[in-house]
Amino acid sequence: MFAAIDAGDVAKTNAIDSDEVDPIFGEIGEQISGAAAASRANSDQHLHDLAVIQARVLFSTPLVFTFGLGLVVFFWRVLVSYQDQVKRAVEREAEAARRNEQRFRALVQNASDLVLICSPDGTVFYQSPATHGPWGYTDDALLDEAFTGLVHPEDTAAARDLWDQTQAVRGATKAVELRCQNAAGAWRHAELILSNLLDEPAVNGLIATVHDIQDRKIFEQQLTQQAFYDGLTGLPNRALLCDRIKQALVRTGRRNTNVGLLFLDLDKFKIINDSLGHQTGDELLIEVATRLKASVRAEDTVGRLGGDEFVVLLENIADDVSVLPVVEAIKKQFGRSFLLEGREIAVTASIGIAFGDASRDQADSLLRNADLAMYRAKAAGKGRHVIFDSSMQVDTLARLELENDLRAAIDGGQLRVHYQPIVPLKSERVTEVEALVRWQHPTQGMISPLDFIPLAEETGLIIPLGLWVLKEACRQAAIWHAQFPIDPPVVISVNLSPRQFQMPDLAEEVERTLQEAGLPARYLKLEITEGTIMLDVEATISTLSRLKAIGIKLAVDDFGTGYSSLAYLKRLPLDVLKIDRSFIKGIAENAEDKAIVQAILLLAKSLNLEVTAEGIENAEQAAMLNSWQCERGQGYYFARPMEADKATALLGRLGLSPLPRVA
Q: Largest Cα–Cα distance in the chain?
């Protein structure tokens, strides 16, 4: 069949095909034809699809090209913008660097710190400009100079030690405070900061920064002054004084010597402070500090503990006698009056003395011992000095107990008023009595006024105590006036303590007391001591004048012991001078006492003042005083102080009769 096909014999081919070929080939042919048709259809579809794609490509190619061109343009513009940003950033950084350099130059040129770069041997090869500020050096003033030339000679060793330590360690930084000289030649406190930058190629040296700390040092000194020195007098305060005492005690062990401590307290300072004001009191304390410093050696310390308490620390004391020259020098200083607000005021000081060494004493115990001795000096009469002994500690405990008991006694009804007659020497009948306070202790019995009156003065208890005595005496006098028709009625005499006398409302308090008691003012006599008058004469005159205006009689007690000025005495509105018993005691045997008493009597007559002699103990004294025209007398010769009921009985028996003699 294939040969027929090749020969182009169609008929033969068909015959063979129909007669001899398997019928399945027909199906195959159909399948092939179908497959061919499907293939052509598929090819046509592919050609169609390709044509569509080609059409789409032809259509989208300009779009893609346009988009791609847009991307190219976009990225080009981004690149250009980035290049501009980079350029501007570089320019900004360059400008910032330039500004920073300018700032750095300005800071360096205007900084108060002086910056030096030094070679390892300490020679300056760079200096920051420091024409401004505390140093004032020109740009090249320190070049080729040793940096230690700036340092104070006393601080050179510290600077060299800092240099050696810093140079030994690469990269190290150390600092020290010392004094450096500025361009004007003045020494100023500075902090020297040294940094080792020998390994830094740009530096290759040691940087020395000189930072001025003068203001800080001044502030620190002010703080130290406030912490360790008294703000008023400039003297060492308690903290610094205790430290110096401790150091002095330690030195006694090496020197085999003692420490002497003088504890001073001004007598009646509170009265001065209250009457003249705190400013005047401060002026007095400043002057006292000046005088104390003038009384001691250069190596001694004068300190102020507070208030009117001062301490003098004496070193290298061989024995008790060694302090006496200093004590006498201090007393000599206090022998001169103090000029305060144009007034001359006499001030004394009580001095306690204690000795110590490192083997047995501490600063606190030494101060306490000197303080105890001072109180003993004050109790002995003020203006004195006393050396401490161990028995004073026992006395101090007893004193504290007595003070507590006295507080309770004032409100607890333990106080009593005793009355001692004062008589005219010609008639010797009772015309006046003096009120004297006594203390009936519940366990110790009757306590002497010599023991509790000074204590009351020191503690301030004398104010309520004195007011109580005044009220009780006025009350009792009013009772006597009602009981006994004596003509003239008995005058009651009451002592005023210095603190009472300085009360600003004293006149009002006295007038109120008289009104409450129903006692006319002319039958009350108030007595003040000569020493109280001399504390402040002008204030005394003012207070006495207010009391005198009420109608009260006024007397100066213990006259002759207070060294009052006659110029002041004639200005005082007084009625009576009471001659101190110390002069009366010796008038029969001592020519000097006799002359003093006669002079006082003559003075009183010239000032139109009456005179009462205290402490008359025998008939001879009474007769002598009467012959000298002394008006009144008081003493054991006439009568001892007695309780109110005994004084009442005495007045009831006497009437106008002379006072019987004491056996």
A: 211
